Amino acid sequence: MRGLWPQSVRWRTTLFATAVSAFALVAVGALVLLLLRANLAGTAQDRAELAAREIATALADGTPPQRALPHDDELVVLIDGPATDFGEDEDPVPRFGGEPRPAPPPGDDDHGGRDDGHDYDDSYTKKVGRVLTEVRFDTVKIDGKPHRFAAITAQAPDGTCFVVYAGVSTAVGEEAVGKAARYMLLALAPVLLVIAGVTWLVTRRALRPVAAIRAELAAITAGDLSRRVPEPGSRDEIGDLARTTNATLAQLDAAVSQQRRFIADASHELRSPIATIRARLEVGAEHPGLLRPAELLDDVVRLQRLATDLLLLARLDAGERPPSRAVDLAGLLREAAARPAPYPVRLEVPEELTVPGVRSRLERVLTNLLDNAQHHTSTAVWVTARVSGGHAVIEVADDGPGVPVAERERVFGRFVRLDEARSRDEGGAGLGLAIVADLVAAHGGTVEVADRPGGGALLRVTLPASRDF
């Protein structure tokens, strides 16, 4: 069954719209036919009742039965009473009105207190006839054709009672309903074909941008992420899909470009220490007396640090998130400040300061901040920590040249050195603050550069403080 169902959205939409339209048209057509039948039957009944009342009124006024008959060939009329012999030679008409009833005794206007089952009109006198208000209806077939009859009782001024039967044929109405049903059935197929065709065309037009988007996405490869899918001018769901797809492609293009730059920069940074180590080893092989193991070890250590930094950045880019635990940030600050350094570290931290995070990564943040300050300061490094607004705020300041305002965002980029003239041995690979920014962001915090009062740079790290663990 699943294989028989069309897989195309266009086909499914067309079939569904056609099926729903067919059901709706059939339901509406049936309702219209029922209403039409009821309306025609009601009209025939009203005509029969009106004709019966007119004849009964004429009889009540004293008109002889022969003269009370209407001149209407569409009516079937029978007057049943002692003074008439009409209908005897005609086709029999069922007398569902019963036998005529005698008039009440003369002078007894209130019917003598008896209830004979008829509702008499009390407005008559002895010399004036009357028409009973009760009207009975029934459907009878004459010559195989249905007729709607109305029966009403009238009393002549002389007291004679008549039952008037007036019938109207409903065959014309039934025929009209039948013709309407046939016409509706004949028109149903063309209407459904039109609906299916219009649905097919509209769906094809609506899905045309989707086909263009699919074709463009199929043509886009990792080698050319600068291409974009066509965006329709409409503000509908398909337009939103195209815009969202282009936004995703733009982010992917930026990510791939960043990765390529990172690989190129990393290759460049790795090539220099490897080339230096190779050169020293080649010199040592030719002249063993010139080989200096201490310098070679420095190059290896520098290469190892660079590889460690690159591995850490790769893990951060991959979204690696070790489990978070309570970390004694005040203790980490004291340990980092106690390390040997060219310049003294002046520390102002509270006795207890706890934040959620990964201890090794927070330790790396503090180490990189202090190393950066030691590289730029002239006399000392100042480190303060406090709790403000539910956040832990750490500030590391130096009295060096500071960071220009225009470079305060760029300084957190990878492989960025503000002093290009400085050698790599003195300035490092330019990954220290980039690692700080990524690690702080992974902990839900922020890092920014400001001016230190009195001159120099101040790096401020804000982390969510932890109260209960």
Describe the protein's architecture and organization.
With 469 residues, this protein is of the alpha+beta class. Helices cover 47% and strands 17% of the residues. It has helices at residues 9-60, 65-68, 171-219, 237-286, 293-317, 329-337, 359-376, 424-427, 432-442, and strands at residues 75-80, 130-142, 145-155, 161-169, 325-328, 345-348, 354-357, 381-388, 391-398, 446-451, 457-464.
Strand order of the largest sheet: 6-8-9-11-10
What value does the average pLDDT take? Answer: 81
* Strand and helix order: HHEEEEHHHEHEEHEEHHEE
Residues in helices, as a percent range: 40-55%
The first-to-last residue Cα distance is: 57 Å
Q: Tally the beta strands.
A: 11
What share of the residues does DSSP label as strand, in percent?
15-25%
Rg calculated over all Cα atoms: 52 Å
Structural class: alpha+beta
What low-confidence regions span 5 or more consecutive residues with pLDDT below 50?
83-95, 97-126, 420-425
Main beta sheet: strand number and arrangement? 5 strands, mixed
Overall shape: elongated
The tally of helices reads 9
Please sum up the structure shown.
It is built from 9 helices and 11 strands.
Write the layout of secondary structure elements.
Layout: H1 9-60, H2 65-68, E1 75-80, E2 130-142, E3 145-155, E4 161-169, H3 171-219, H4 237-286, H5 293-317, E5 325-328, H6 329-337, E6 345-348, E7 354-357, H7 359-376, E8 381-388, E9 391-398, H8 424-427, H9 432-442, E10 446-451, E11 457-464
Parallel strand pairs: 6-8
Antiparallel strand pairs: 1-4, 2-3, 3-4, 5-7, 8-9, 9-11, 10-11
